Amino acid sequence: MKRLTPSFFKTRNGENVKPNWQYQVATVFVFLHDGHCFACRRICQQFAERQNQFEEWDAKVWFVWRGDFIPEGCQGILESGKVRQNWLDNDAAGVLIVDRHGVVVKQWLASSGKGFPSPEEVLSTVKQIALQCPE
Predict the structure, then answer these.
(1) What is the CA radius of gyration of the chain?
(2) Among 46, 94, 113, 116, whose Cα sits 20 to 30 Å from the Cα of 61?
(3) Mean pLDDT for the stretch of residues 52-66
(4) Residues near 51 by Cβ (< 8 Å), separated by ≥ 6?
(5) What percent of the chain is predicted at pLDDT more than 70?
(6) Between residues 68 and 24, which one has the greater pLDDT?
């Protein structure tokens, strides 16, 4: 299993933020192309519509955009590419679920030919993590 190194991202305002996965059962990182990508905007909207369901299971969803454009209705953070390369094994887009110890529990790479997982599929994995005994 891969353990992630905490990293800083930028907000739309240029502020640095560091996702803190120690405080949730799971943290979901949705790495998207830039805000001009129609498919990525659609994925962002699908996950954003279910944000409350993720929060009910003590999970935080972070939308990570490449470039400097975040489309309306899709909150998110920006990154330069270093984190994307390291965390996604050089892929351009994908989804990672990280537990409270920074360990990648599940990973989907968009280039695998299957595209992005559905929010329901990701939520199912989050529920499995939440129901496991922490010992």
Answers:
(1) 14
(2) 113
(3) 94
(4) 61
(5) 96
(6) 24
- Strands, sheet with 9-10, edge to edge from the N-terminal-most edge strand: 16-17, 9-10, 77-79, 59-66, 26-31, 94-99, 104-109
Other CB atoms closer than 10 Å to residue 20's CB: what's the count? 11
> For residues 81 and 53, what is the distance between their CA atoms, to the nearest angstrom?
29
For residue 122, pLDDT beyond 80: yes
CA distance from start to end of the chain: 17
Q: Which long-range contacts (CB under 8 A, 24 or more apart) does 84-89 make?
A: 84/31, 86/5, 87/4, 87/7, 87/29, 87/31, 88/31
pLDDT of 135 higher than 60: no
Q: What is the CATH number of domain 21-131?
A: 3.40.30.10
Residue type at 65 in one-letter notation: W
Write down the pLDDT at residue 6: 86
Query: Could you tell me the residue ranges of all domains in the chain?
Result: 21-131
Residue listed under structure tokens 């299957």: 114
Q: Give Dmax over CA atoms of the chain in angstroms.
A: 44
pTM of the predicted model over 0.90: yes
